[in-house]
Amino acid sequence: xxxxxxxxxxxxxxxxxxxxxxxxxxxxxxxxxxxxxxxxxxxxxxxxxxxxxxxxxxxxxxxxxxxxxxxxxxxxxxxxxxxxxxxxxxxxxxxxxxxxxxxxxxxxxxxxxxxxxxxxxxxxxxxxxxxxxxxxxxxxxxxxxxxxxxxxxxxxxxxxxxxxxxxxxxxxxxxxxxxxxxxxxxxxxxxxxxxxxxxxxxxxxxxxxxxxxxxxxxxxxxxxxxxxxxxxxxxxxxxxxxxxxxxxxxxxxxxxxxxxxxxxxxxxxxxxxxxxxxxxxxxxxxxxxxxxxxxxxxxxxxxxxxxxxxxxxxxxxxxxxxxxxxxxxxxxxxxxxxxxxxxxxxxxxxxxxxxxxxxxxxxxxxxxxxxxxxxxxxxxxxxxxxxxxxxxxxxxxxxxxxxxxxxxxxxxxxxxxxxxxxxxxxxxxxxxxxxxxxxxxxxxxxxxxxxxxxxxxxxxxxxxxxxxxxxxxxxxxxxxxxxxxxxxxxxxxx
Length: 494
Prior knowledge:
two-stranded antiparallel ribbon
C-alpha cells in the first residue's frame, strides 16, 4: 500500500513543473544559507516562510523541506573548506573533512559529503514512508529518563572524539557542560554564573560558541603561522572515486539508520545524530583507526546521519503533530497557516498530500545530489584564494553569523572570546570537539536528570526500570569499561 501510494505521490510531483521548481529552489537556497556560519536551516526556513503564503500548500512545504535538506548539507562546505561549520550538525564532519582539505583533497571531501547526504536523506525518506507512525510512537516513548540516558551515552562516547588524550577530552567536555549551565536554572529559575552580566541571563547561544571555537580560532592560527590555504593539485578530482563509495557504502547505510532514528526522537536534532553516528564509527573502527586525520568514512558517517535526521524529524511532526526539532517547528507552523492540523487525523484524511510530500522529499535528495556535485568544483576552488583576502573574509563571516543569531553585538564578543579559548586550547592540545559536545548535550542532560529525579522522588532506580533507558545506560557503562581497558592496554604496551 505504501509503495503504491508513494508512486502516486511521485506522479503528483512530476505532473506539475512548478512543484519541482520549488523543490530545487529550496535546496539551492538552503545550501547557500547553510554554508554561511551562523545562518542555519532554521533561519532559512523562517525567512522563506512568508513566501509560502498564497501558494499551494504542497509547493510551500516542499520549498521549506528543500531548504532544510540543503541547509544541513551546506554546513559541511564551510566545515570542510574553512574548518568553520556552517551549522552545528556539520561540526562532526569537520573532524575528518578539514584534514582532507589540507591534503589538497577538498573536492574529493565535498563529493563524499554530497553522496553521503544523498544516501542518508534517501534512506531516511524510504524509512519515513514505510514506518512513520511506528517510529513516531517509539520516539514519543522517550521521557526524561530516556533522554538523560541518551545524553549519558553520548557523553560516555566522548572518547570517540577525544584524540590521543582521554583526560584532556573529558576536561574539555566538562568545561562545555559547565558553559551550558550559565544563565537561568531551567528548574528553579535562579540565575547561575552570570557575574551580573544581563546578556548572560538567557545563557550563551550555541552558534557564537561554534563559530568562535572553530572559525575565529582557525583565523588566529593561520594569521599567526602565515600559512597559505591548502591548494589541491592542478587536476584535482571533484567527484568521489568508486573505491571511496565501495569503502563507505555500509558506513553510509548504518549511519543513515542511526540518523533517522535519532531524528525521529523529538528534541534530539541533526547535530546529536551526526555525533552519534561518528561515535559509532569510531567504536567500530577501533583504537588504531586514522579517524580525525582525513578518513573518508569520517565524512560519510556524520553527513549520512544528519541528512537522514532531517527526514526523521518529519515523522513525529506529520504523524503526531510533535515537531522533532526547530526546523520542523517552522514546518508545523506552515502547515497550520495553510489550514492543516498535523496528527493522526491529518495522516488519515490527507493521504494525497502526505505521499506527495514524501515523494517531494526524495526529489529533494536528487536535487541535492545534482546541485552538490555540480558546484563541487566551484566550492573547492575557493580555498585557492589568497590568504590575505580569505582570512579577513572568514572573520567577517564569523562576526556576521554570530550577530545574526539574536542581532546582538554581545554574541560577536562571545565568538571572539571563544575564538581565543579555542586558539589557546589547540596550543596545549586540548580537543575542541568534546567541548562542543558538552555544550550541546549539557542542557539536555541536566534538565532531564532533574526531571527524572522529580518523577522518581530522588530514586536513581528509575533509569533501570524502563527498557530504553536501561539499554542506553548499560551502553554508556560498557563504553566506559572498554575505554578504561583500552587505556590500560596502551599504557602496558608503552
